[in-house]
Write a structure and sequence with these properties.
With 132 residues, this protein is mostly helical. It has one domain. It has six helices and no strands. The two termini are 15 Å apart.
């Protein structure tokens, strides 16, 4: 494996994880529209940021142990699908499918990259001169 492709395989899940966490964090900003006051808004913001915080911790661990990233992002995707399917709100099936594609899809995509990283770990480290 060339050094350039090894670097791409190594960095892709990490960069995508950062972008995905930032994307999820944007959804927490809707708490400011509720005009709840300082402490209730802060609590609501923290609750909305729990998925981002969990994925951030997973990314920190996956930076060294890629299998953790593969597992956590895969589990996160399945949990999101289970949540969307079990929702009691009247949402059309096409909208639910779109939600799953937007959230669980990238989570599975990132999990697959971390899995490839883990499976090719020795080869990647040899190609990159143990710099990763």
């Amino acid at each position: 494996m060339s050094t350039i492709s090894a670097r791409a395989v190594y960095w892709t899940p990490r960069i995508l994880s950062i972008l995905f966490i930032a994307f999820l964090s944007i959804f927490a900003l809707d708490v400011f529209e509720e005009h709840l006051g300082f402490w209730p808004t802060l609590l609501a913001l923290l609750l909305h940021l729990i998925p981002s915080l969990v994925l951030t911790m997973a990314l920190l661990l996956a930076w060294r142990w890629e299998w953790i990233g593969a597992a956590v992002y895969g589990i996160a995707g399945f949990l999101y699908i289970a949540w969307v399917v079990s929702m009691s709100r009247p949402v059309s099936p096409s909208m639910r499918f779109l939600w799953v594609l937007m959230i669980a899809g990238p989570a599975f995509f990132i999990a697959s990259f971390f899995l490839a990283n883990w499976l090719k770990r020795k080869q990647l480290r040899a190609s990159m001169g143990r710099s990763c």
